[in-house]
Design a protein that fits this description.
The protein is α/β, with parallel strands linked by helices. It has two domains: 164 residues, no CATH class; 332 residues, no CATH class. Helices cover 59% and strands 8% of the residues. It is built from 19 helices and nine strands. The strands form two sheets. A six-stranded mixed sheet has the order 5-4-3-7-9-8, with helices on one face. Strand 8 and strand 9 form a beta hairpin. Helix 3 crosses helix 19, helix 5 packs parallel to helix 8 and helix 11 packs antiparallel against helix 12. The longest helix is centred in the middle third of the chain and has 31 residues. The protein starts with a helix and ends in a 13-residue tail after the last strand.
């Protein structure tokens, strides 16, 4: 039901998705970086999405590349979902696979942003599913390879995994660590030659991925492509005071991925009731899964299989599946709660891997006829809520829409201005909507000491953005929805023209106002 509704609203989903500057940032940076002067550097934001950025750069010259960029993350996420469905079907059958996929496809607004954006965590989850498939679908074939073939396979998968490992520490937590843990746990449990060879393959793959990722990151940083200092906050243990904040942030972020962040919402509204039901189902499922993992660990602790013969292969593959996703869930939650993630509404994206693991572990709850019926009813209710929510509120955004962007484009181009400035949440989304015919870069209010001025924003930028261009006109856009940039700086002088377009106020100047911005580094 939700999938059909999503397909029916596909155009609206794409439009709304890219009205978010965080979503539009990756393709905008890739497009403009290709035209930047030699020696320019680019800051990707708080997440070093090196693999995705390289893909965008390599495909920028292709025909219809804009359409490819729109569909690329969606196709990758769909491929990962199909691969996961294949793993579940092989181990547990079609019915269980259908339940798992029906739950995982019912994403909320933040979940869709995470799965359908270049600079979110959807790509890391796809790579995680590939590692799982190597264990449960290709494990028998891999373990039967010759030593040379096993080495080549480990290097190939390791280099493929090095792409996300180069910039995403969470992929190491969600994917590589569970991959190695599951293979080693399987070798300990089985004590047979095939399991030991598979464990060696997993360890070799992980080593290659970590080394290859570090080398790729060093090369890209040497070329001036890196993330902002904010990324380092995730690599710092939380203080005691931060731990309590992390718990609250976790409850909001984890439920937001399903569209169930009911905290602070009105109880009497229809949307509030649906959101509460969705979030409650997610939290109940999480508690049930953690209890199921505990019971399963107690059952298999110390258990050993004498031989991995034909009769033991399905059970062993199920054990690997259970060990992999259990590690992904627990390590992902632990990393979020114990570290210092950015405290923003979008921080739930750091939990996308554990959220997928929660759905992938549903087979643990389908152990009897009664539990099957209960989980099936809960999954159906979850899907109904998702479909209802999709009709009520689809990726809401306060940023300018396509019609407003086109009106701004016509106005500024008619005055010969192709470079503009605005608040971050307006600037990048507008640049994408105007199809790069005009370029709008972000500015930010300066500190209190210089409150009468606007500053450059160095967290998501190309260094050449704030170099004044001689003999060009520029424009400033003020959006009352984002009052951080409330109006023109007095130091900009008098504009040669101004106009209100829908909710926006556009001021055109006879020079590049970058010359009067305060160059500030965040």
């Amino acid at each position: 039901m939700f999938a059909l509704d999503l397909v029916g609203n596909f155009g609206t989903v794409l439009t709304q998705l890219y009205r978010n500057s965080d979503t539009a940032a990756a393709p905008v940076l890739a497009q403009l970086y290709a035209h930047a002067p030699a020696g320019s550097t680019v800051t990707l934001g708080s997440h070093a999405y090196y693999e995705e950025f390289l893909v965008l750069l390599l495909t920028r010259g292709l025909p219809l590349h804009r359409q490819l960029w729109l569909l690329g993350p969606i196709l990758m996420s769909l491929a990962g979902l199909c691969l996961l469905a294949s793993c579940v079907r092989r181990l547990y059958g079609w019915w269980v696979a259908a339940i798992v996929i029906s739950v995982l496809i019912c994403l909320g607004d933040l979940g869709m942003v995470s799965a359908f954006s270049w600079d979110a965590r959807g790509n890391a989850v796809v790579h995680t599913v590939v590692l799982l498939a190597a264990l449960v679908l290709g494990g028998r074939r891999i373990s039967s390879l010759s030593p040379g073939g096993l080495t080549v396979a480990a290097i190939a998968l390791g280099l493929f995994s090095a792409l996300p490992a180069s910039g995403d520490v969470l992929f190491i937590v969600w994917g590589l660590m569970p991959f190695t843990f599951a293979a080693l746990a399987g070798a300990y449990r089985s004590r047979d030659r095939a399991s030991r060879r598979l464990a060696g393959f997993a360890v070799g793959t992980t080593v290659v991925a970590l080394i290859g990722g570090a080398l790729l990151a060093a090369v890209l940083r040497g070329d001036g492509i890196e993330a902002s200092a904010a990324q380092a906050s995730y690599l710092v243990f939380a203080t005691p005071a931060q731990l309590a904040k992390n718990l609250g942030s976790f409850l909001e972020g984890f439920t937001s991925l399903a569209g169930g962040d009911f905290f602070g919402q009105g109880i009497r509204s229809r949307l509030g009731a649906v959101t509460f039901l969705t979030g409650s189902l997610v939290l109940v499922a999480l508690g049930a899964q953690l209890l199921a993992i505990k019971r399963r660990v107690l059952l298999v602790a110390g258990a050993r299989m004498s031989q991995a013969g034909a009769a033991g292969e399905p059970a062993h593959a199920r054990f690997l599946y259970f060990a992999f996703w259990s590690a992904t869930l627990i390590l992902g939650l632990g990393a979020y709660l114990l570290a210092s993630p950015l405290e923003t509404p979008a921080s739930g994206r750091y939990l996308f891997g554990p959220y997928v693991a929660l759905g992938a572990l549903l087979p643990l709850l389908l152990t009897g006829s009664r539990s099957r019926a209960l989980v099936t009813v809960a999954a159906s209710l979850f899907a109904i809520c998702a479909s209802y929510r999709l009709h009520l509120e689809l990726l809401p955004s306060r940023a300018p829409g396509p019609a407003t962007a086109q009106a701004v484009e016509r106005y500024v181009l008619s005055l010969g201005a192709t470079k503009g400035y605005s608040e971050y949440w307006v600037s990048t989304a507008l640049t994408w909507e105007m199809n790069f015919h005009a370029e709008v870069v972000p500015v930010w209010p300066c500190p209190a000491a210089t409150s009468n001025a606007l500053c450059s924003l160095k967290e998501v930028d190309i260094s050449s953005w704030y170099r004044p261009r001689p003999h060009v006109r520029s424009f400033l856009i003020i959006d009352p929805n984002y009052p951080d940039v409330a109006g023109p700086s007095a130091g900009f002088g008098k504009p040669i023209a101004s106009k209100s377009i829908d909710n926006l106020h556009v001021y055109v100047y006879p020079y590049d106002i970058a010359a009067r911005l305060v160059q500030r580094y965040f």
